[in-house]
Amino acid sequence: MMYLLDSNVFIGAHQFHYSFDFHPGFWDWLIQTNLEGKVFSIEKVYEEISQQEDQLYEWAQNRKGEFFLENPPDIDGHLKHVTDCVNRGNYKPTAIEEFLKSADYYLIGYALFSDFRIVTHEVPRSRKGRIKIPSVCQVLGVECITPFDMLRQENARFVLDPLQ
């Protein structure tokens, strides 16, 4: 399986679940699984998480070339599918406009293009004021899971070394 991570995975991990200071194993695991060709994100997500110069920004900056993928030149047809989906979704025009400018739009397009699973903390929502990744993925047939599902599926283990 190959995974594309939403910005909220990085931000949530950094701020809450897997802070760099007490859970470096999570970040090491991301690097390792990226090197194995399983876990990635996209440049637009990099741009979102780089808005604040902090430890997450430094981590991402050091991995910009290999972890955060550029959009391939032939992705436009897949992005059009995403655009058509949200235009048919009975969302408010402002929600559509905001979504089409977001990293979420490109993340879903890239997943369609490359057959990745999307990993996000977002949950589907029927509210028409904000477009959520899982809602669009469901319509387009893109698998969308939580970070915890990804960790379980990949058998990630963050175990302390036994005392000597």
What do you see in this structure?
This protein is of the alpha/beta class and 164 residues long. It has one domain: 3-Layer(aba) Sandwich (Rossmann fold). The protein is built from 10 helices and 5 strands; from the N terminus they run βααβαααβαααβαβα. It has helices at 7-17, 24-35, 43-49, 55-61, 64-67, 76-87, 93-100, 103-114, 133-140, 147-153; strands spanning 3-5, 39-42, 68-69, 117-119, 144-145. It has a 5-stranded parallel sheet with strand order 3-2-1-4-5. β4, α9 and β5 form a beta-alpha-beta unit. α8 runs parallel beside α9. The mean pLDDT is 94.
Structural descriptors:
164 residues; alpha/beta; Rossmann fold; 5-stranded parallel sheet; 5 strands; 54% helix
Topology summary:
Blueprint: E1 3-5, H1 7-17, H2 24-35, E2 39-42, H3 43-49, H4 55-61, H5 64-67, E3 68-69, H6 76-87, H7 93-100, H8 103-114, E4 117-119, H9 133-140, E5 144-145, H10 147-153
Parallel strand pairs: 1-2, 1-4, 2-3, 4-5
Helix pairs in contact: 3-8, 6-8, 8-9
